[in-house]
């Protein structure tokens, strides 16, 4: 008997809905048996390796299993009695196998978990092995977990959290079960911006909890921006004069605490200090001469003269050589707080007009009339990157602008560099990978989590229109982008359906290392961050872990993600993560009743 029908039988007394386990991200391979679930007591004998991260990870998972007594909230399999879908086909990720031997005596309950880790020392860095297997054999009372590294073991635990469920009374798990799992991509994450608005340490940890449950493994932390500098610095304590308040700062201990919290959950923290663009706050306190155009009008009303793409302006002065001394000290101190081999050094959206306010730059151009803005950006690469690379094992992440924008640096080496692509979707991914750059996909048209909330700039006359013209006459408001440059809002379906390696050669596709969904924080702080990240980031989690296609048919499985994601949203909320609802609860209770197309292959 399949788990959903058995659980339903036990649970129907209290509810009309059938339930089924449906972990997210869908594992690469699950094989369920057909002999029905076995009970799991509240106390198991754990047979764990002597490793603090594994032991703590196990008890964290086990405590949640026992505390939450999770009952899946949205079943993937259609409910027999609900039209229009009869129970025709089994759930795609599962295949019933005959019971191995009916003659073998079944155990009455699970009593042990055994966790074997081949290599206890592998560090949490890019490309660490995250694979794991979970096995419960038919005649066994042991849950067997094996993993190459402790980080894979942590993923096994979050899978177990979703497949040991309650039947309304005790805990149960389907037996036998065999899971083999590993991610497609090494980089799977979200980006938080604590520069435009502050996000507190507890809220950052809440996001990390969600990342871990979704098997996302990167928190890209955009620490500062022109608007504020929230990071306490020993080398230049004056920088936090540009924090929003004394309470909206990160101490060294705060940062080390976030890094340790993330690491304990298998999440790497990628720090970013955006340079030389997006740089006024903090830097200007150290030495105003290293910031160009900080006091200019950002000039959106005279676009030809703009010094920034959003207020407030400010860019590190590339020619003033005092800049590099300050940058080196700040970068070196921050490098002691983070444990990842990678450091993100920004490099996006340089605005040439800003440098008209710098006498260093204008003199430099005057000295040699052949010099171009591309040469200026190259000067930054040639002078700043050697500083960044001095740290042992250091690799860099940059935004693609420094290679693709006008202006850009003509000569950016491909070695030890990851390029984060955010413009022009597949076009830029194809361009960068063809040129041998390793790429993190963050295409704004698909993955920006902040889009679609209108404009934040004030005194904007484009809203002062008393009509809703028809679509043929689309203006800024109706039919337009409503002031959000990357409108509309990216729904989970938009994210999940993104085939970001489409039309790449195999050689190009190998250069795609994963994907990060950014959440810029012009309109985000503690009050809304979780609802903007979740559960949409979980759609990216499955896309980057096991893909958006059914491994057997090769067809898009967006329609089967639906119930998995709706269930996972409820699970996030149960775990204290403020994920937004995606549908009326009716849709969750009535699988596929809210589909636009009756045809389940409409997305393929
Ligand atoms: C900035 O300087 C460049 C080079 O002299 C010039 O072409 C450009 O028009 C200036 N921009 C503004 C806004 O004055
Ligand atoms: C700093 O810049 C000046 C020109 O403004 C140059 O003469 C000097 O060599 C530079 N110093 C260093 C250490 O690069
Ligand atoms: C990449 O884009 C640039 C323009 O931004 C273009 O000059 C170049 O030819 C493109 N290269 C490839 C390989 O597509
Ligand atoms: C892939 O290339 C084909 C042939 O040029 C084109 O028709 C198709 O639109 C491309 N797909 C994507 C997703 O760009």
From TrEMBL:
Record keywords: Glycoprotein, Glycosidase, Hydrolase, Signal
Active site: 349
GO biological process terms on file: carbohydrate metabolic process; glycosaminoglycan metabolic process
Signal peptide region: 1-20
Top-tier EC class: hydrolase
Protein name stated in the entry: Beta-hexosaminidase
Catalytic activity: Hydrolysis of terminal non-reducing N-acetyl-D-hexosamine residues in N-acetyl-beta-D-hexosaminides
GO cellular component: membrane
Family statement drawn from the similarity comment of this UniProt entry: Belongs to the glycosyl hydrolase 20 family.
CDD domains to which the protein is assigned, alphabetical: GH20_HexA_HexB-like (cd06562)
Lineage top rank: taxon: Eukaryota
GO molecular function ontology, one term from the record: beta-N-acetylglucosaminidase activity
The keyword Cytoplasm appears for this protein: no
Keyword Hydrolase: yes
Pfam families reported in the protein's UniProt record: Glyco_hydro_20, Glycohydro_20b2
PANTHER family noted in UniProt: BETA-HEXOSAMINIDASE, BETA-N-ACETYLHEXOSAMINIDASE
Domain Glycoside hydrolase family 20 catalytic: 185-547
Family matches, as InterPro entries: Beta_hexosaminidase_sua/sub, GH, Glyco_hydro_20_cat, Hex-like_dom2, HEX_eukaryotic_N
Organism: Talaromyces proteolyticus
Ranges where the Beta-hexosaminidase eukaryotic type N-terminal domain occurs: 23-163
EC number: 3.2.1.52
Region (Disordered) location: 81-105
Bias kind Low complexity: ranges: 90-101
């Amino acid at each position: 008997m399949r788990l959903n029908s058995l659980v339903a039988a036990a649970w129907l007394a209290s509810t009309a809905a059938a339930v089924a386990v449906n972990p997210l991200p869908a594992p690469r391979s699950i094989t369920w048996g057909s002999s029905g679930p076995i009970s799991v007591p509240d106390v198991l004998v754990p047979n764990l390796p002597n490793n603090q991260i594994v032991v703590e990870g196990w008890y964290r998972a086990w405590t949640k299993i026992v505390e939450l007594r999770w009952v899946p909230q949205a079943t993937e399999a259609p409910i027999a009695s609900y039209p229009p879908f009869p129970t025709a086909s089994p759930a795609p990720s599962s295949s019933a196998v005959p019971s191995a031997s009916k003659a073998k005596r079944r155990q009455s309950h699970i009593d042990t978990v055994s966790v074997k880790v081949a290599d206890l020392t592998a560090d949490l860095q890019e490309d660490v092995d995250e694979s794991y297997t979970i096995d419960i054999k038919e005649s066994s009372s042991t849950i067997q977990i094996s993993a190459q590294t402790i980080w894979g073991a942590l993923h096994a635990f979050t899978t177990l959290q979703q497949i040991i469920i309650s039947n309304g009374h005790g805990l149960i798990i389907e037996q036998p079960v065999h899971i083999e799992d590993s991610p497609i991509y090494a980089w799977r994450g979200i980006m938080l911006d604590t520069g435009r608005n502050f996000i507190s340490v507890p809220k950052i940890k809440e996001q990390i909890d969600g990342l871990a449950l979704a098997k996302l493994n990167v928190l890209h932390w955009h620490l500062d921006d022109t608007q504020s500098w929230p990071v306490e610095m020993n080398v230049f304590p004056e920088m936090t004069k540009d924090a929003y308040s004394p309470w909206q700062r990160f101490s060294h201990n705060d940062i080390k605490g976030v890094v340790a919290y993330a690491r304990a959950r298998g999440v790497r923290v990628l720090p970013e200090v955006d340079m030389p663009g997006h740089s006024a706050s903090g830097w200007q306190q150290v030495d105003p001469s290293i910031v160009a155009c900080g006091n200019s009008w950002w000039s959106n009303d005279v676009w030809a003269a703009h010094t920034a793409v959003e207020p407030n302006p400010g860019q590190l002065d590339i020619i003033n050589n005092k800049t590099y001394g300050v940058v080196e000290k700040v970068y070196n101190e921050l490098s002691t707080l983070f444990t990842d081999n990678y450091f993100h050094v920004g490099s996006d959206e340089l605005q040439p007009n800003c440098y008209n306010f710098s006498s260093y730059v204008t003199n430099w151009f005057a000295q040699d009339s052949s010099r171009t803005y591309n040469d200026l950006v190259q000067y930054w690469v040639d002078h700043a990157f050697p500083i960044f690379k001095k740290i042992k094992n250091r690799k860099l992440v940059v935004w693609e602008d420094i290679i693709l924008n006008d202006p850009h640096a003509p000569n950016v080496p491909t070695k030890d560099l990851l390029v984060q692509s955010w413009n022009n979707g597949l076009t830029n991914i194809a361009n960068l990978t063809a040129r041998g750059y390793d790429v993190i996909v963050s295409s704004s048209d698909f993955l920006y989590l902040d889009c679609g909330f209108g404009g934040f700039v004030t005194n904007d006359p484009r809203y002062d229109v008393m009509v809703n013209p028809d679509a043929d006459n689309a203006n800024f408001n109706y039919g337009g982008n409503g002031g959000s440059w990357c409108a509309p809002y990216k729904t989970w379906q938009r994210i999940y359906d993104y085939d970001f390696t489409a039309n790449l050669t195999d050689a190009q596709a190998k250069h795609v290392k994963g994907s990060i969904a950014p959440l810029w924080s012009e309109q985000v702080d503690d009050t809304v961050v979780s609802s903007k990240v979740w559960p949409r980031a979980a759609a990216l989690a499955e896309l980057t872990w096991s893909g958006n296609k059914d491994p057997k048919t090769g067809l898009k499985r967006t329609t089967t993600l639906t119930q998995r994601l709706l269930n996972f949203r409820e699970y996030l909320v149960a775990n204290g993560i403020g994920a937004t609802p995606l549908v009326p609860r009716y849709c969750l209770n009535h699988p596929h009743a809210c589909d636009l197309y009756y045809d389940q292959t409409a997305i393929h």
